[in-house]
Here is the input.
Amino acid sequence: MYLRAIKKHFSIEMKYSTKTKRVIMSTEHIDVLIVGAGLSGIGAAYHLQKECPHKKVLIIERRNAIGGTWDLFRYPGIRSDSDMFTLGYNFKPWTNPKAIADGTSIREYVQETAHENGIDKKIRFGLQVRHAAWSSKNATWTVDAVREATGETVQFSCNFLLMCSGYYNYDAGYTPEFKGIKDFKGQIVHPQKWTEDIDYKNKNVVIIGSGATAVTLVPSMAEKAAHVTMLQRSPTYVISVPERDIISEKLRPFLPEKMVYRLARTRNVGLQMMFYRLSREKPNVVKRFLLQMVRRQLGKGADMTHFTPTYNPWDERICAVPDGDLFKVIRQGKASVVTDQIETFTKTGIKLKSGLELAADMIVTATGLNLQLLGGMTVEVDGKPFAMTQTMNYKGVMFKDLPNLAMIFGYTNASWTLKADLSSEYICRLLKHMDTKGLRQCTPQNSDGTVAEEAFLGLASGYVQRAKNVLPKQGNKAPWKLYQNYALDLAMLRFAKLEDGAMRFSSPK
Here is the structure.
């Protein structure tokens, strides 16, 4: 009776988990629960409070800070490889002179957005989502999260679950099993685990990798290191882009900031779409253009072997370097590129299969990320486990047979936030439509037998290929197709009919 009296007095349901031996407390119900307080989560919260102001919105965030990726990654030179006129939100102009921005500036931009709009007051920090269970009877998600500081399980319920937790594992990046790695006497660090106390001044550094992280690290570390070697198994396409947007800078004295931002955003979206389409339709033309740019950057006598991939542009992501900083440090002799395969680590460096040995005081394994959907959360629907690998993505936002759950997943061939903004707007449309019709459930379902399943991401990159067993599928036609095209997504997500025959609306009986 005493426990019942406490329960009644505080309106708190308490139970004990036999698995964790932790108290589970369910104290509140949320209309829309957002997981993740990074670029996507803060943007989604803004759209929801603007378009659906009557909805109670809460964000739960595993880390103890706003910013997501831009708060986690602290390696030297961390920056965006997309211009900030398109990586920035569609509702908040980017005013920093740098169009290609450093990680600190981006983190501050996200934090400023949260503070300006009161979103920071709607965040619960230090909570990692573990499990979500859908009940068709109640049209409700029950979400279990663990307070990492204490191990306590906290439970939420919500009508709509919005996953803004990114697409990779925050706990650890990907490092291959290199032979002899324990023999190396120097320091080995993965960029995802970089800390401020790491000292590389006057050291010989070998960076393993040739992706966006590696080409960012090389010019930044070369300023302090004795020498930096980028060791790659195969070359990547690299393009030099202006760090500052000169056109926008010249327009700012004459036009309102929002207009300057909108013009730059529209222009850059168009250029990105045109370049990607040309890459797919005329790959040899684009390949020649990219290689000519590299040759001009490196100067006469450049060894183009290290910058000539065997694949076509955009079969894998193209790396952007601001003002050709990578090529500058190579020309100056501060850095070099080696294309080879690793035979074994040694006490003093790395021995390659060609027989060459690279001496190193420090080795940085910029070898990629481990992809992970929904923050590693497990899902069940009406008491049965739901396999994300067996479902199909709907409009790049929701999933077949999975009610009232959306995932923000940006572009792989353009700025992430372009798609994130459109996805958030679409979710607001869905919620308002259900409210108007007095409905509580929305579930994508496929009754078209001609829809064929395809790989979720059409990239040959290693991190994508390694994650085939954790990714869902996409279809070969709308609304199940991921077009990676802003114009098509704009039409589909902002203007197309919500009741398209695939999205089924209902309420519990």
